[in-house]
Amino acid sequence: MNTSAEAVAELGADPLQRSAERLFWASVAGAAGFALLAVLLTLMRAVPERAALLARLRTMGLRRRQGWR
């Protein structure tokens, strides 16, 4: 009869188990990459709107230093 430690070691050495673990971590990394890409694209899309807003506020007396904040 196998002990639980031996059973865990046997399952951990299974090639299918290792492949599933690699696939899981690759999926996690891919999801993190897509999340970062979504944030960056959202920020890039907001740049023209922010520039127009700052231009309007500058015409109303906003200083450049205040715009940076």
Automatic annotation (TrEMBL):
Membrane-spanning ranges: 23-43
Keywords, comma-separated and alphabetical: Membrane, Transmembrane, Transmembrane helix
Domain of life of the source: Bacteria
Protein name: Uncharacterized protein
Organism: Streptomyces caledonius
